[in-house]
Protein backbone atom coordinates (compact mmCIF):
# COMPACT_ATOMS: atom_id res chain seq x y z
CA UNK A 1 0.00 0.00 0.00
CA UNK A 2 2.84 2.40 0.76
CA UNK A 3 4.29 1.83 -2.70
CA UNK A 4 0.86 2.30 -4.28
CA UNK A 5 0.33 5.59 -2.37
CA UNK A 6 3.77 6.78 -3.42
CA UNK A 7 3.00 6.06 -7.09
CA UNK A 8 -0.36 7.83 -6.81
CA UNK A 9 1.29 10.92 -5.30
CA UNK A 10 3.89 10.94 -8.11
CA UNK A 11 1.13 10.82 -10.71
CA UNK A 12 -0.68 13.74 -9.03
CA UNK A 13 2.56 15.75 -8.89
CA UNK A 14 3.13 15.16 -12.59
CA UNK A 15 -0.43 16.23 -13.32
CA UNK A 16 0.02 19.37 -11.18
CA UNK A 17 3.29 20.14 -12.97
CA UNK A 18 1.68 19.72 -16.39
CA UNK A 19 -1.22 21.94 -15.30
CA UNK A 20 1.15 24.63 -14.05
CA UNK A 21 3.10 24.49 -17.33
CA UNK A 22 -0.14 24.76 -19.28
CA UNK A 23 -1.25 27.78 -17.23
CA UNK A 24 2.17 29.40 -17.68
CA UNK A 25 2.10 28.84 -21.42
CA UNK A 26 -1.44 30.20 -21.59
CA UNK A 27 -0.41 33.30 -19.64
CA UNK A 28 2.61 33.78 -21.89
CA UNK A 29 0.45 33.48 -25.01
CA UNK A 30 -2.04 36.02 -23.64
CA UNK A 31 0.81 38.37 -22.80
CA UNK A 32 2.20 38.06 -26.33
CA UNK A 33 -1.22 38.74 -27.82
CA UNK A 34 -1.61 41.80 -25.61
CA UNK A 35 1.86 43.03 -26.49
CA UNK A 36 1.18 42.54 -30.17
CA UNK A 37 -2.01 44.51 -29.82
CA UNK A 38 -0.13 47.35 -28.15
CA UNK A 39 2.44 47.34 -30.94
CA UNK A 40 -0.33 47.50 -33.50
CA UNK A 41 -1.92 50.34 -31.60
CA UNK A 42 1.38 52.24 -31.58
CA UNK A 43 1.42 52.06 -35.35
CA UNK A 44 -2.14 53.38 -35.71
CA UNK A 45 -2.82 57.07 -35.15
CA UNK A 46 -6.32 58.29 -34.48
CA UNK A 47 -8.01 54.90 -35.04
CA UNK A 48 -10.84 56.53 -33.14
CA UNK A 49 -11.51 60.16 -32.33
CA UNK A 50 -10.05 59.67 -28.82
CA UNK A 51 -6.79 57.90 -29.74
CA UNK A 52 -4.68 61.03 -29.39
CA UNK A 53 -6.91 63.50 -27.62
CA UNK A 54 -10.40 62.61 -26.48
CA UNK A 55 -11.50 66.24 -26.75
CA UNK A 56 -10.75 66.83 -30.45
CA UNK A 57 -10.42 65.37 -33.92
CA UNK A 58 -9.21 66.49 -37.32
CA UNK A 59 -11.12 68.46 -39.87
CA UNK A 60 -9.73 71.28 -42.05
CA UNK A 61 -8.00 74.59 -41.43
CA UNK A 62 -8.11 75.64 -45.06
CA UNK A 63 -11.11 73.36 -45.45
CA UNK A 64 -8.82 70.34 -44.92
CA UNK A 65 -7.36 70.17 -41.43
CA UNK A 66 -8.18 71.99 -38.21
CA UNK A 67 -9.04 71.12 -34.61
CA UNK A 68 -12.74 71.10 -33.58
CA UNK A 69 -14.48 69.75 -30.48
CA UNK A 70 -15.43 66.11 -30.92
CA UNK A 71 -18.46 64.15 -29.87
CA UNK A 72 -19.89 60.77 -30.77
CA UNK A 73 -22.07 62.41 -33.43
CA UNK A 74 -19.26 64.47 -34.94
CA UNK A 75 -16.93 61.46 -35.02
CA UNK A 76 -19.59 59.51 -36.85
CA UNK A 77 -20.15 62.41 -39.22
CA UNK A 78 -16.49 62.44 -40.32
CA UNK A 79 -15.39 58.78 -40.48
CA UNK A 80 -13.42 59.39 -43.68
CA UNK A 81 -11.41 62.24 -42.17
CA UNK A 82 -10.56 60.20 -39.10
CA UNK A 83 -9.47 57.31 -41.33
CA UNK A 84 -7.27 59.64 -43.38
CA UNK A 85 -5.54 60.71 -40.20
CA UNK A 86 -5.14 57.09 -39.10
CA UNK A 87 -3.42 56.20 -42.35
CA UNK A 88 -1.18 59.24 -41.94
CA UNK A 89 0.58 57.58 -39.00
CA UNK A 90 1.61 54.59 -41.04
CA UNK A 91 5.23 55.77 -40.98
CA UNK A 92 7.11 53.11 -39.01
CA UNK A 93 9.94 53.51 -36.56
CA UNK A 94 11.42 50.01 -36.63
CA UNK A 95 15.06 49.08 -37.09
CA UNK A 96 14.33 47.99 -40.66
CA UNK A 97 13.66 51.59 -41.76
CA UNK A 98 17.14 52.00 -43.25
CA UNK A 99 16.70 49.05 -45.58
CA UNK A 100 13.19 50.17 -46.53
CA UNK A 101 14.44 53.70 -47.22
CA UNK A 102 17.20 52.33 -49.44
CA UNK A 103 14.69 50.27 -51.44
CA UNK A 104 12.39 53.29 -51.67
CA UNK A 105 15.25 55.46 -52.97
CA UNK A 106 16.09 52.79 -55.54
CA UNK A 107 12.45 52.65 -56.64
CA UNK A 108 12.22 56.43 -56.95
CA UNK A 109 15.46 56.58 -58.90
CA UNK A 110 14.18 53.86 -61.25
CA UNK A 111 10.97 55.83 -61.80
CA UNK A 112 13.05 58.91 -62.48
CA UNK A 113 14.96 57.04 -65.17
CA UNK A 114 11.68 55.98 -66.76
CA UNK A 115 10.47 59.57 -66.71
CA UNK A 116 13.68 60.73 -68.35
CA UNK A 117 13.32 58.40 -71.32
CA UNK A 118 9.62 58.88 -72.01
CA UNK A 119 8.73 60.61 -75.24
CA UNK A 120 6.23 63.18 -74.00
CA UNK A 121 7.60 66.60 -73.11
CA UNK A 122 6.74 68.09 -69.71
CA UNK A 123 3.68 70.28 -69.66
CA UNK A 124 4.50 73.79 -68.51
CA UNK A 125 1.12 75.39 -69.11
CA UNK A 126 -0.11 78.33 -67.07
CA UNK A 127 -2.01 77.07 -64.01
CA UNK A 128 -5.74 77.68 -63.89
CA UNK A 129 -5.93 78.74 -60.25
CA UNK A 130 -4.70 81.80 -58.38
CA UNK A 131 -1.27 80.68 -57.17
CA UNK A 132 -0.78 83.84 -55.12
CA UNK A 133 -3.33 82.48 -52.62
CA UNK A 134 -1.43 79.26 -51.99
CA UNK A 135 -2.59 75.68 -52.30
CA UNK A 136 -5.10 73.76 -50.20
CA UNK A 137 -3.55 70.45 -51.29
CA UNK A 138 -0.52 69.51 -53.34
CA UNK A 139 0.05 66.10 -54.88
CA UNK A 140 2.23 66.10 -58.03
CA UNK A 141 2.01 62.78 -59.84
CA UNK A 142 5.23 62.97 -61.89
CA UNK A 143 8.60 64.63 -61.72
CA UNK A 144 7.74 66.71 -64.75
CA UNK A 145 4.60 68.03 -63.07
CA UNK A 146 6.84 69.05 -60.18
CA UNK A 147 9.43 70.70 -62.42
CA UNK A 148 6.62 72.35 -64.41
CA UNK A 149 5.33 74.03 -61.22
CA UNK A 150 8.88 75.09 -60.32
CA UNK A 151 9.43 76.53 -63.80
CA UNK A 152 6.24 78.59 -63.56
CA UNK A 153 7.33 79.94 -60.16
CA UNK A 154 10.71 80.96 -61.61
CA UNK A 155 8.97 82.66 -64.54
CA UNK A 156 6.75 84.65 -62.19
CA UNK A 157 9.74 85.65 -60.04
CA UNK A 158 11.74 86.79 -63.08
CA UNK A 159 8.70 88.74 -64.28
CA UNK A 160 8.65 90.49 -60.87
CA UNK A 161 12.32 91.46 -61.17
CA UNK A 162 13.96 88.81 -58.98
CA UNK A 163 17.53 87.94 -60.00
CA UNK A 164 18.67 85.55 -57.24
CA UNK A 165 16.38 82.58 -56.60
CA UNK A 166 16.32 79.22 -54.83
CA UNK A 167 14.51 76.09 -56.06
CA UNK A 168 14.26 73.04 -53.79
CA UNK A 169 12.44 69.95 -55.07
CA UNK A 170 13.47 67.07 -52.77
CA UNK A 171 14.11 65.02 -55.90
CA UNK A 172 14.65 61.63 -54.24
CA UNK A 173 12.48 62.09 -51.17
CA UNK A 174 13.58 62.86 -47.63
CA UNK A 175 17.02 61.26 -47.45
CA UNK A 176 18.41 62.48 -50.72
CA UNK A 177 22.07 62.37 -49.71
CA UNK A 178 21.89 59.03 -47.89
CA UNK A 179 21.37 56.64 -50.76
CA UNK A 180 22.45 56.48 -54.41
CA UNK A 181 24.59 59.62 -54.41
CA UNK A 182 25.47 59.23 -58.10
CA UNK A 183 21.80 58.96 -59.01
CA UNK A 184 21.04 62.05 -56.94
CA UNK A 185 23.66 63.99 -58.91
CA UNK A 186 22.31 62.73 -62.24
CA UNK A 187 18.69 63.39 -61.29
CA UNK A 188 19.57 66.95 -60.33
CA UNK A 189 21.20 67.45 -63.72
CA UNK A 190 18.14 66.02 -65.47
CA UNK A 191 15.75 68.25 -63.51
CA UNK A 192 17.94 71.30 -64.06
CA UNK A 193 17.93 70.53 -67.79
CA UNK A 194 14.13 70.36 -67.76
CA UNK A 195 13.96 73.68 -65.88
CA UNK A 196 16.51 75.23 -68.22
CA UNK A 197 14.64 73.96 -71.28
CA UNK A 198 11.46 75.68 -70.05
CA UNK A 199 13.29 78.98 -69.59
CA UNK A 200 15.17 78.62 -72.88
CA UNK A 201 11.81 78.11 -74.56
CA UNK A 202 10.95 81.61 -73.33
CA UNK A 203 13.92 83.01 -75.25
CA UNK A 204 16.53 83.02 -72.46
CA UNK A 205 19.98 81.45 -72.70
CA UNK A 206 20.73 79.10 -69.79
CA UNK A 207 24.00 77.79 -68.37
CA UNK A 208 23.89 74.90 -65.85
CA UNK A 209 26.83 75.17 -63.45
CA UNK A 210 28.49 72.13 -61.83
CA UNK A 211 31.15 72.36 -59.08
CA UNK A 212 34.21 71.77 -61.31
CA UNK A 213 35.40 70.67 -64.73
CA UNK A 214 35.62 67.00 -63.68
CA UNK A 215 31.87 67.07 -62.99
CA UNK A 216 31.26 68.58 -66.42
CA UNK A 217 33.23 65.74 -68.05
CA UNK A 218 31.27 63.19 -66.02
CA UNK A 219 28.01 64.86 -66.99
CA UNK A 220 28.91 64.70 -70.68
CA UNK A 221 29.41 60.95 -70.26
CA UNK A 222 26.03 60.68 -68.53
CA UNK A 223 24.38 62.32 -71.54
CA UNK A 224 25.27 59.22 -73.54
CA UNK A 225 23.39 56.90 -71.14
CA UNK A 226 19.71 55.95 -71.13
CA UNK A 227 18.93 58.45 -68.41
CA UNK A 228 20.51 61.24 -70.44
CA UNK A 229 18.34 60.61 -73.51
CA UNK A 230 15.88 63.42 -72.76
CA UNK A 231 18.70 65.78 -71.88
CA UNK A 232 20.42 65.01 -75.20
CA UNK A 233 17.19 65.69 -77.07
CA UNK A 234 16.52 68.97 -75.24
CA UNK A 235 20.07 70.23 -75.69
CA UNK A 236 20.14 69.21 -79.36
CA UNK A 237 16.97 71.18 -80.07
CA UNK A 238 17.99 74.22 -78.01
CA UNK A 239 21.61 74.30 -79.19
CA UNK A 240 23.67 76.98 -77.45
CA UNK A 241 20.63 78.19 -75.50
CA UNK A 242 21.24 75.42 -72.93
CA UNK A 243 24.82 74.44 -72.03
CA UNK A 244 26.84 73.03 -69.11
CA UNK A 245 29.65 74.87 -67.35
CA UNK A 246 31.53 74.83 -64.06
CA UNK A 247 31.90 77.18 -61.11
CA UNK A 248 35.69 77.12 -61.56
CA UNK A 249 35.32 79.08 -64.80
CA UNK A 250 35.47 82.20 -62.65
CA UNK A 251 38.43 80.99 -60.60
CA UNK A 252 40.19 77.79 -61.81
CA UNK A 253 41.44 75.58 -58.99
CA UNK A 254 45.09 74.62 -58.52
CA UNK A 255 44.22 71.00 -59.35
CA UNK A 256 42.76 72.04 -62.70
CA UNK A 257 45.80 74.18 -63.54
CA UNK A 258 48.24 71.38 -62.66
CA UNK A 259 46.06 68.80 -64.44
CA UNK A 260 45.97 70.95 -67.56
CA UNK A 261 49.76 71.36 -67.54
CA UNK A 262 50.24 67.57 -67.26
CA UNK A 263 47.66 66.59 -69.88
CA UNK A 264 48.98 69.21 -72.29
CA UNK A 265 52.10 67.04 -72.65
CA UNK A 266 49.98 64.30 -74.22
CA UNK A 267 47.31 66.24 -76.13
CA UNK A 268 49.42 68.51 -78.26
CA UNK A 269 49.56 71.37 -75.77
CA UNK A 270 45.81 71.84 -75.53
CA UNK A 271 44.79 73.96 -72.53
CA UNK A 272 42.00 72.30 -70.51
CA UNK A 273 41.67 74.96 -67.79
CA UNK A 274 37.99 76.12 -67.64
CA UNK A 275 37.46 79.51 -69.25
CA UNK A 276 34.68 81.99 -68.42
CA UNK A 277 32.02 82.39 -71.13
CA UNK A 278 32.81 85.15 -73.62
CA UNK A 279 29.14 86.13 -73.84
CA UNK A 280 27.55 85.19 -70.49
CA UNK A 281 24.11 83.59 -70.57
CA UNK A 282 20.93 85.15 -69.16
CA UNK A 283 20.29 82.51 -66.48
CA UNK A 284 22.73 80.41 -64.42
CA UNK A 285 21.46 77.31 -62.59
CA UNK A 286 23.82 75.99 -59.88
CA UNK A 287 23.46 72.29 -58.94
CA UNK A 288 25.30 69.65 -56.87
CA UNK A 289 27.41 72.17 -54.95
CA UNK A 290 28.55 71.36 -51.42
CA UNK A 291 29.29 73.71 -48.54
CA UNK A 292 32.93 74.13 -49.64
CA UNK A 293 31.71 75.15 -53.10
CA UNK A 294 29.57 78.03 -51.82
CA UNK A 295 32.45 80.57 -51.92
CA UNK A 296 32.91 79.58 -55.59
CA UNK A 297 29.23 80.33 -56.18
CA UNK A 298 29.73 83.80 -54.69
CA UNK A 299 32.86 84.39 -56.78
CA UNK A 300 31.09 83.28 -59.95
CA UNK A 301 28.18 85.60 -59.26
CA UNK A 302 30.42 88.59 -58.57
CA UNK A 303 32.69 88.04 -61.61
CA UNK A 304 30.31 86.69 -64.26
CA UNK A 305 26.64 86.43 -63.30
CA UNK A 306 26.07 89.74 -61.53
CA UNK A 307 23.17 91.60 -63.12
CA UNK A 308 21.84 88.33 -64.56
CA UNK A 309 19.68 85.59 -63.07
CA UNK A 310 21.15 82.93 -60.79
CA UNK A 311 19.19 79.96 -59.43
CA UNK A 312 20.47 77.68 -56.65
CA UNK A 313 18.72 74.37 -57.35
CA UNK A 314 18.42 71.43 -54.94
CA UNK A 315 21.44 72.47 -52.86
CA UNK A 316 19.58 71.84 -49.56
CA UNK A 317 20.82 75.18 -48.26
CA UNK A 318 19.36 74.58 -44.80
CA UNK A 319 21.73 71.63 -44.44
CA UNK A 320 24.71 73.53 -45.86
CA UNK A 321 24.09 76.55 -43.64
CA UNK A 322 24.44 74.28 -40.62
CA UNK A 323 28.12 73.69 -41.51
CA UNK A 324 29.01 77.34 -41.91
CA UNK A 325 31.24 78.62 -39.13
CA UNK A 326 32.75 75.23 -38.29
CA UNK A 327 36.55 74.80 -38.40
CA UNK A 328 37.88 74.58 -41.98
CA UNK A 329 34.48 75.61 -43.38
CA UNK A 330 33.34 78.98 -44.72
CA UNK A 331 32.23 81.52 -42.12
CA UNK A 332 28.64 82.31 -41.19
CA UNK A 333 29.09 85.68 -42.84
CA UNK A 334 28.68 83.92 -46.21
CA UNK A 335 25.00 83.52 -45.39
CA UNK A 336 24.59 87.05 -44.08
CA UNK A 337 26.25 88.77 -47.06
CA UNK A 338 25.36 86.43 -49.95
CA UNK A 339 22.94 83.53 -49.37
CA UNK A 340 20.39 85.78 -47.68
CA UNK A 341 19.70 87.43 -51.06
CA UNK A 342 18.32 84.24 -52.65
CA UNK A 343 14.54 84.15 -52.58
CA UNK A 344 12.96 80.67 -52.41
CA UNK A 345 10.54 80.73 -55.34
CA UNK A 346 9.70 77.03 -55.28
CA UNK A 347 10.46 75.20 -52.07
CA UNK A 348 9.35 71.68 -51.13
CA UNK A 349 11.41 70.27 -48.27
CA UNK A 350 10.09 67.11 -46.62
CA UNK A 351 10.35 66.48 -42.89
CA UNK A 352 9.74 63.47 -40.65
CA UNK A 353 8.98 63.66 -36.95
CA UNK A 354 8.00 61.35 -34.08
CA UNK A 355 6.45 61.88 -30.66
CA UNK A 356 6.36 59.51 -27.70
CA UNK A 357 3.35 59.53 -25.38
CA UNK A 358 2.44 57.79 -22.13
CA UNK A 359 -0.89 56.56 -23.51
CA UNK A 360 -1.85 54.60 -26.64
CA UNK A 361 -0.75 54.81 -29.41
CA UNK A 362 2.47 55.63 -27.48
CA UNK A 363 4.70 56.33 -30.47
CA UNK A 364 3.35 58.65 -33.19
CA UNK A 365 5.20 59.18 -36.46
CA UNK A 366 4.10 61.95 -38.80
CA UNK A 367 5.49 63.74 -41.83
CA UNK A 368 4.99 66.93 -43.76
CA UNK A 369 6.70 69.66 -45.72
CA UNK A 370 7.62 73.30 -45.62
CA UNK A 371 6.26 74.56 -48.92
CA UNK A 372 6.36 77.68 -51.04
CA UNK A 373 5.11 78.20 -54.60
CA UNK A 374 5.84 81.78 -55.66
CA UNK A 375 4.00 84.14 -55.55
CA UNK A 376 2.04 82.24 -52.93
CA UNK A 377 2.68 82.38 -49.17
CA UNK A 378 4.83 80.05 -47.10
CA UNK A 379 2.80 76.99 -46.08
CA UNK A 380 3.15 74.11 -43.64
CA UNK A 381 1.83 70.96 -45.30
CA UNK A 382 0.88 67.74 -43.52
CA UNK A 383 1.33 64.49 -45.40
CA UNK A 384 -1.87 62.43 -45.65
CA UNK A 385 -2.29 58.70 -46.13
CA UNK A 386 -2.69 59.00 -49.91
CA UNK A 387 0.66 60.77 -50.19
CA UNK A 388 -0.83 64.21 -50.80
CA UNK A 389 0.11 67.30 -48.78
CA UNK A 390 -2.59 69.33 -47.05
CA UNK A 391 -2.08 72.88 -45.80
CA UNK A 392 -2.38 73.33 -42.03
CA UNK A 393 -0.81 76.80 -41.68
CA UNK A 394 0.36 79.66 -43.89
CA UNK A 395 1.78 83.15 -43.70
CA UNK A 396 3.81 85.61 -45.75
CA UNK A 397 7.09 85.08 -43.88
CA UNK A 398 9.07 81.85 -43.81
CA UNK A 399 8.34 79.50 -40.90
CA UNK A 400 11.17 78.53 -38.59
CA UNK A 401 11.76 74.76 -38.68
CA UNK A 402 10.54 74.41 -35.09
CA UNK A 403 7.44 76.44 -35.92
CA UNK A 404 6.63 74.18 -38.86
CA UNK A 405 7.02 71.11 -36.65
CA UNK A 406 4.72 72.62 -34.02
CA UNK A 407 2.06 73.48 -36.62
CA UNK A 408 2.01 69.86 -37.84
CA UNK A 409 1.75 68.52 -34.29
CA UNK A 410 -0.99 71.02 -33.45
CA UNK A 411 -3.00 69.96 -36.50
CA UNK A 412 -2.79 66.36 -35.29
CA UNK A 413 -3.79 67.35 -31.75
CA UNK A 414 -0.52 66.15 -30.18
CA UNK A 415 1.22 69.49 -29.57
CA UNK A 416 2.06 70.60 -26.07
CA UNK A 417 0.37 73.76 -24.86
CA UNK A 418 2.40 76.84 -25.68
CA UNK A 419 4.17 78.22 -22.63
CA UNK A 420 3.89 74.93 -20.74
CA UNK A 421 6.84 73.17 -19.13
CA UNK A 422 6.47 70.17 -21.44
CA UNK A 423 6.51 72.44 -24.48
CA UNK A 424 9.72 74.05 -23.19
CA UNK A 425 11.32 70.65 -22.54
CA UNK A 426 10.43 69.40 -26.01
CA UNK A 427 11.22 72.54 -28.03
CA UNK A 428 14.09 73.96 -25.96
CA UNK A 429 14.84 77.59 -25.19
CA UNK A 430 16.12 78.36 -28.70
CA UNK A 431 13.44 79.60 -31.06
CA UNK A 432 15.37 78.71 -34.20
CA UNK A 433 18.78 78.10 -35.74
CA UNK A 434 21.51 80.74 -35.87
CA UNK A 435 20.62 81.73 -39.44
CA UNK A 436 16.90 81.93 -38.59
CA UNK A 437 17.62 84.24 -35.67
CA UNK A 438 20.17 86.42 -37.49
CA UNK A 439 17.80 89.10 -38.80
CA UNK A 440 20.00 91.93 -37.51
CA UNK A 441 23.14 90.68 -39.27
CA UNK A 442 21.89 89.63 -42.71
CA UNK A 443 22.06 92.13 -45.57
CA UNK A 444 18.76 90.96 -47.09
CA UNK A 445 15.58 89.27 -45.90
CA UNK A 446 14.78 87.84 -49.36
CA UNK A 447 15.41 84.28 -48.18
CA UNK A 448 12.66 84.74 -45.57
CA UNK A 449 10.06 86.42 -47.78
Written account of the structure:
- The chain is α/β, with parallel strands linked by helices.
- It contains 14 helices and 12 strands.
- It has a 10-stranded mixed β-sheet, sandwiched between helices. It has a two-stranded antiparallel sheet with strand order 1-2.
- A hairpin with a 6-residue loop joins strand 1 and strand 2.
- The longest helix is centred in the N-terminal third of the chain and has 41 residues, at 2-42.
- The chain is elongated, with a radius of gyration of 28 Å.
Could you provide a short overview of the structure?
Helix content is 41%, strand content 16%.
- Strand element count: 12
Tell me the β content: 15-25%
N-to-C order of helices and strands: HEEHHHEHEHEHHEHEHEHHEEEEHH
The separation of the N and C termini measures 99 Å
How many separate helices?
14
- Portion in helices: 40-55%
The biggest beta sheet, please?
10 strands, mixed
Low-confidence stretches: 33-98, 119-127
> What is the approximate shape?
elongated
Mean pLDDT: 74
Radius of gyration: 28 Å
Structural class: alpha/beta
Strand arrangement in the largest pleated sheet: 3-12-11-10-9-4-8-7-5-6
Secondary-structure blueprint of this entry?
Blueprint: H1 2-42, E1 56-59, E2 66-69, H2 72-77, H3 79-88, H4 97-117, E3 137-138, H5 143-159, E4 164-168, H6 181-200, E5 206-210, H7 213-222, H8 229-238, E6 242-246, H9 254-263, E7 283-286, H10 294-305, E8 309-313, H11 317-321, H12 333-337, E9 343-356, E10 363-373, E11 378-383, E12 389-395, H13 401-412, H14 421-427
Parallel strand pairs: 4-8, 4-9, 5-6, 5-7, 7-8
Antiparallel strand pairs: 1-2, 3-12, 9-10, 10-11, 11-12
Helix pairs in contact: 4-6, 5-6, 6-8
